[in-house]
Design goal:
Elements (H helix, E strand, L loop, with lengths): L3 E5 L3 H13 L3 E5 L2 H10 L4 E4 L8 H10 L8 E5 L1 H5 L3 H6 L11 E4 L4 H12 L2
Parallel strand pairs: 1-2, 1-3, 3-4, 4-5
Length: 131
């Protein structure tokens, strides 16, 4: 069975864009439109990899990342943060995380700045699934 990628992003166009790339790459895709829905989906069906936006309503990507990295059932699932935070704010994402409580523990496996190129997305996803 193809690996399952969970996309957690509040922007429908972004979800559709990444889903199309991943489906063409042979992956199974699930999508959540906010952090609460994403966390529920992680609990229902542990995905093989998570693509996570940071700025979302209801539960931020940072809150979801903290839950994934510090507790089951998401612990151990690779997380690639895909966000435009740095581009929009000028803030370095890793420096931002370092300043957060438990910053070392909540570090994602990888960070990709939006807009993400199809080849870059597939390369990152494959690198974590082939480990």
């Amino acid at each position: 069975m193809a690996p399952t990628i969970l996309i957690i992003d509040d922007d429908a166009d972004t979800r559709t864009y990444m889903s199309t790339i991943l489906l063409r790459g042979g992956f199974r895709v699930r999508m959540a439109s906010d952090g609460d829905e994403g966390w529920r989906m992680i609990q229902e069906e542990r995905p093989d990899l998570i693509l996570l936006d940071m700025m979302m309503p209801r539960k931020s990507g940072l809150q979801v990342l903290r839950q994934i990295k510090t507790g089951s059932p998401g612990q151990g699932v690779p997380v690639i943060v895909i966000t435009g935070v740095g581009q929009m704010t000028g803030v370095d994402f890793y420096q931002y995380l370092a300043g957060q409580e438990g910053g070392a523990e909540i570090r994602p496996d990888e960070f990709i700045e939006k807009p993400v190129k199809p080849d870059r997305l597939l390369k990152a996803v494959r690198s974590y699934l082939n480990r």
